[in-house]
Hints:
Blueprint (H helix, E strand, L loop, with lengths): L14 E6 L4 E3 L7 H7 L5 E4 L2 E3 L3 E3 L4 E3 L8 E3 L7 E3 L4 E3 L2 E2 L7 E5 L5 E3 L2 E3 L4 E6 L5 E3 L2 E4 L3 E6 L5 E3 L2 E5 L4 E4 L5 E3 L2 E5 L4 E4 L4 E5 L2 E5 L4 E4 L3 E5 L2 E5 L4 E4 L3 E5 L2 E5 L4 E4 L3 E5 L2 E5 L4 E4 L4 E5 L2 E3 L6 E6 L3 E5 L2 E5 L1 E6 L4 E5 L2 E13 L3 E5 L2 E11 L5 E5 L2 E3 L3 E6 L5 E3 L2 E3 L4 E6 L5 E3 L2 E3 L4 E5 L6 E3 L2 E3 L4 E5 L5 E3 L2 E2 L13 H9 L27 H10 L4 H22 L11 E5 L5 H14 L8 E4 L1 H4 L6 H12 L4 E4 L15 H14 L5 E6 L1 H10 L1 H4 L4 E5 L4 H14 L3 E2 L3 H11 L9 H19 L7 H5 E2 L9
Parallel strand pairs: 3-6, 4-7, 5-8, 6-9, 7-10, 8-11, 9-12, 10-13, 11-14, 12-15, 13-16, 14-17, 15-18, 16-19, 17-20, 18-21, 19-22, 20-23, 21-24, 22-25, 23-26, 24-27, 25-28, 26-29, 27-30, 28-31, 29-32, 30-33, 31-34, 32-35, 33-36, 34-37, 35-38, 36-39, 37-40, 38-41, 39-42, 40-43, 41-43, 42-44, ...
Antiparallel strand pairs: 1-2, 1-3
Amino acid sequence: MPRWGQSNSMAQGTVQVTHTGTSRWRRRTGEYTSLAAALEAASDGDVLTVAPGTYRENLVVERAVTLRGPEGSPGSVRIAPVDGVPLTVRASALVQDVHVEGQDSAAPALLVEDGAPELTDVRVMTRSACGIEVRGGARPTVRRCTVDNPGGIGIGVLDGGGGVFEECEVVAAGQSGVSVRGGGHPRLERCRVHHASGAGLSVTGEGSGLEAVGCEVYEIKGSGVQVTARAAAHLTDCGVHRTTSDGVTLDTDAVLTLADCRIHDIPENAVDLRSRSVLTLTRTTVREFGRNGLSVWDPGTRVDANQCEIHDSTGDYPAVWVSDGATAVLESCRVHDVPDALFVLDRGSRVDVVDSDLTQVRNTAVSVSDGATAQLDDVRIKEAATGAWFRDHGSGGILANCTVDGTQTGVIITKGADPTIERCTVTSPAEAGFYVSAGGRGSLDRCKVTDSGGYGFHVIDGCRTTLRRCRTERCARGGYEFAEDGPLVEDCTSDESGGVRPAAVPDPAPQTATQTAGLLGSMPGPRPAEQPAATVPAQASRSSKAVLGELDTLVGLESVKREVRALTDMIEVGRRRQEAGLKAASVRRHLVFTGSPGTGKTTVARLYGEILASLGVLERGHLVEVSRVDLVGEHIGSTAIRTQEAFDRARGGVLFIDEAYALSPEDSGRDFGREAIDTLVKLMEDHREAVVVIVAGYTAEMNRFLSVNPGVASRFSRTITFGDYAPEELLRIVEQQAEEHEYTLGQGTGEALLKYFTAVPKGPAFGNGRTARQTFEAMVERHAGRVAQLATPDTDDLTLLYPEDLPDLP
């Protein structure tokens, strides 16, 4: 075995070159100045066994030879040039048991350009543009190879390259773990790709394709699998988990098939596809995702899922989201333990669900809105707040042979939605089997409700729903409850002796609660916990003159009082003109209150409602005060429900929205406040006589709010500005508080309070009237601490407040 020399910078090595011919055996030996020279001397079929060492050469294998390290010493041969491509293979060679190390960020470490070579037990540890790159007509078989390349792509297959990678591992990549582009089409078998800083598997470009079997993709700083720009991929028995972005993404005419795969521990969408992409899932499990399990967007985009399971969401988003004209088909699937199971929205969007189970859903199992269509056949919905909700005009579809069990409300139809529901059964709803309101329509044929805690079929607002051959059994509040001039009923039956009946006309006060609560809620009816008697008086009892008299007693607010009186006079004169048979000017009663906290906005709103009730403009005049937290939900769809419920509680009175600008933050992004605004604007238009809305907040913020929401601004008649209180007015508030609580300001206390209110900081924490009341309360507390030390205090001691009782300035 000859030895060959190297320069001092190179380790010593021995190369054995053998050749086997068909007719003779010969052994060729010689002294070679480099490993490259030995390769040059070798012929097809020769075996080059390389002695341990570090070879700083750029090797090119252009013959069908075997290049391997010594047996029993893995990792002892290192090919590590200073720059360029360390190892290039252009023939059907065998490369085995060598380490390849590159340092060139513009070149791959191991480049396969032609032939069908075999790479076995090769370890690539590099900071190159790519760890292993296959291009052109190359079709390598790569077995048990490892790539560690924190500087670039792990494995790249491009320009028509292909090959098979078996039991390979990308342990680190500064970009994509595996990148396929330019018509590349590799096959991965039992490979692992992890700790990549781009997509785990990336396939892009027309003609590019990837087939993966038994592979795992995990610990990815990006998407697990990304297929884009007319590329295609097929994954079988693969796992994708622990990414920082979406688990699987498809974009722009991409095609992907997932069979027997597992996608889990994903902080964003488990699968997101758009722009005419097509996804087929079979026997695939999706779980523990932070946003949507399936997120499907755009016309022509389609998902077909068969025998799949989607469950255990970790966020507050629907498990399946279909919008902007996309299509999803779920057959023999299970969706469970999620906030919402399926949301389909936008005209042209469609969902078909067949022989599937939707269970353990915290909110709505199926939501159809904005003109979308859903078709459910033999679907079983169990343990959800709402089974199916058709939300608005143009939204519809077909529910056939479905069962809904253990929900609050089985099916809701609102705002002109018009589904067809056939042979469906709702069992044990807490509040209603079928609930139709706000212009909802629908055709219900051979449907059944049993064991309802409320009504079986509840149709309000005169909705023209059609009921044919429906039946109810054991419904606590009655089988059927209809408004007059309501649904069309044919051959419907009930186990009640009275059969089908329209709603009786109740007394005036209960009638309001029954007809108005929950236009978008699960079930209409009074809600005592949300309507305490102190907040919701049954009926205004004072005249407008008496209420205006109370307004006049408020400290300051002179411009506000003038505005309210002017508005009241307009309404009063308009009423009198109508009584005289004259035209009355239309007065928009919705108001904007601007000003700092503590300037009396809520008090004036309460009095304004009482004035309007005394004039017969509002039925009750009560005040319902809400803020962003009361209107904006945590997930899509819940905001409209909360806003509707707040509006319903305010019917006949005033809905007062404090800090309304918080519904439209400057950095709103996907904020749900916009949904509250849109819902509110529509309600104000549809029920303009039922509720007066007052929005309030800081002056500058409210001006911005109105400027960016013209739909809101157009519905308010005027803005009333509440100025800050002057020190003298704050003193007067303290004096009123003292008089009410039987205290007296001692000598010099008034002057001390004026100085105090002049000096108190007027920053964000300053609360005007609230500051005055807090100051009085602090004085009472300090007074108590002082007087408690006296053995026998007299009446003056018990009632007089002195300058020393003032709190320290904040």
